[in-house]
Amino acid sequence: MFSKRIISSFSTLTSQSILKQTVTRSYFKSNTFLKSDQLSRHVETEENNDHTPFDFTADNMIKVKKILSKYPPKYKQSALIPLLDLAQRQNGGWITVRAMDKVAQICGIAPMTAYEVASFYTMFNRNKVGQHLVQVCTTTPCMIRGSTAIVDACRKHLGIGVGESTKDGKFTLMEVECQGACVNAPMMCVNDDFYEDLTPESTVKLLEQLANNQKTKIGPQTSRKAAEGPNGKTSLFEPPTPPPFRADF
């Protein structure tokens, strides 16, 4: 009888615990895609499905072999990220299912492993993007320095919303997290280039230059040099003093 009571009590507590967990999970669950990760989710299209052909070009196969040569033969999977990046660049800035399958085959791993990596790192776009992928940082330092106005300037000038592409396929606008240039906030990244110390006016100027295939000024859009403060360089005018000891091995 005592055992039955224990089992009954345990069952009740377990049911309550499961219910509590279910309620908690439901409370925190969100079905909406985050603006910063919607390009990392697979969307079945005519350009991206199990039958979309992909193979590396002859020139890129030379690069594939060079990348693989950096790792021991038994650890070809270590080349997964650089090979996914190479496939994405060949494919115009985004990576398809068949491209990931090809990379998995070269690395000797299961396709699912390639899918997991490509979905985890936001550097990989699993949906088609424009020629210029504009990623505006809106994390706290950039937000304090006016990133909201930068996003608005991009939206107004390009005529698209965040996560959308222009009809001519030239631009895709994204809102992302910290890009590591907080001291030069606000900033945005376009493909591989960083543009910092932005204003709405300098942002529009950059977008116009990109649209017209003109050369842009990479880095700070002010007179600032790299990440120096407003007073310029204030230290390290001479080579640092070497340590007073020498390690003998």
TrEMBL record:
The keyword NAD applies. [2Fe-2S] cluster binds at C137, C142, C178, C182. It comes from the Eukaryota. InterPro entries: NuoE-like, NuoE_dom, NuoE_N, Thioredoxin-like_sf. Residues 213-224 have a biased composition (Polar residues). GO terms for biological process: mitochondrial electron transport, NADH to ubiquinone. This is NADH dehydrogenase.
